[in-house]
Amino acid sequence: MQICNISNILVERLLEKNSNIEGEFSWEAPSNIALVKYWGKYGDQLPKNPSLSFTLNRSKTLTQVKYVLHKNHVNHETDFSFQFEGAQSDSFKQKLINYLKKITPLCPMVSFLKLSISSQNTFPHSAGIASSASSMAAMALTICSIEKELFPDQFESDEYFFAKASYLARLGSGSACRSVYGGAVSWGVKSNEYASELVSFDNIFKTYQNAILVVSTDKKSVTSRQGHALMEEHFYKEARFKQAKHNYSALVRTMEKGDLESFIQIVEIEALSLHAMMMTSEPSFLLLTPQSLHIINRIRAFRERFGANVCFTIDAGPNIHLLYPKRQKDQIVSFIKDELLQYCENGMWIDDEVGSGPKLQMGKR
């Protein structure tokens, strides 16, 4: 599918006909947890290997955007106000400034509008959940809603709407392109420019549970951007890209069959491979803590002892995501409380699950 930009000519025609442009959209977008990890990129946020993720249900960002035609009615620098959870945030605002400048050539109408943006999360910052994924997905969805409201003929279908939102989200944060969809989502297979839903997989994964065990809320010693950059000169990069492609294909087949034993094996190998790449980069980073390793060992011991279909995955940090079927929830929650919370910061954990994707809260699409 070819993603098209709204041309300057169409913008000028709209402005000639209408000087009373205003409205409001609000989108709720979830975070996601990668099962096959994207690590290494090229060009403008394009992945070096395919990835596969679960979209979460309760861990999400709600973004509201009010827009009005700028009174000067001429092209100018992007004009917006921003609040995060009711307060000013200079760091978040600077990210938005950079993002809106980046997408203005693709969405030129943005430069004619005054935007009032407010955003809030349902989960604590630095809790091991990718807030950049949910926040940039929510922002991209609101931008696409504004465009569709003003230029309805340019959006041929819902499929195109979400593909363009995924494309725009990717420009803010690579993994954000996956948060535009629900369930299991792939990126770097059909297209490197936007993600797409994985259509065929066993029903057991539609309600899969994800418990986030918060080992530490400290800021990571290496950002994802820095980590991706380290892959450019990594001695093992080609082997890693080959491994990720193999694991992606194997995991898709496994999920289609509902083979939980193979699912566990692939997901854990992927998580540890990501950290192995960071530990062997130059400079190297060790993001797992003793508490992280205690949790991993406890999970493996519990699985062997009780035959439970529980496994872990880890993003680029110390916090552990516990994945398991819903039918085993009572057993696993008891395990978390009895054995794992002692390794979490202030006993913090978040109970989540696979979700159905973003939801429009205000406005129309």
Looking at the structure, the CATH topology of the largest domain is: Ribosomal Protein S5, domain 2
Domains (count): 2
Per DSSP, what share of the residues sits in E-state strands of 2 or more residues? 15-25%
What is the top-level CATH class of the largest domain?
A: Alpha Beta
Globally, the shape reads globular
Q: Which spans have pLDDT < 50 for at least 5 consecutive residues? A: none
Number of beta strands? 13
pLDDT averaged residue by residue: 92
- SS-derived structural category: alpha+beta
What's the story with the biggest beta sheet? Answer: 7 strands, mixed
* Number of H- or I-type helical stretches: 9
Termini separation comes to: 20 Å
What can you tell me about this protein's structure?
By secondary structure, this protein is an alpha+beta fold. It folds into two domains: 8-200, 2-Layer Sandwich (Ribosomal Protein S5, domain 2), CATH 3.30.230.10; 204-353, GHMP kinase, C-terminal domain (Alpha-Beta Plaits, 2-Layer Sandwich), CATH 3.30.70. The protein has nine helices and 13 strands. It has helices spanning 8-17, 90-103, 131-150, 158-172, 224-230, 237-257, 260-279, 290-306, 329-340, and strands at 22-36, 41-42, 46-47, 51-69, 79-84, 113-121, 184-187, 196-197, 209-213, 311-314, 320-324, 349-353, 359-362. The strands form three sheets. Strands 1, 4, 5, 6, 7, 8 and 13 form a seven-stranded mixed beta sheet that branches. Strands 10-11-9-12 form a four-stranded antiparallel beta sheet. The protein has a two-stranded antiparallel sheet with strand order 2-3. Helix 6 (237-257) runs antiparallel to helix 7 (260-279). The radius of gyration is 21 Å and the shape is globular. The two termini are 20 Å apart. The mean pLDDT is 92.
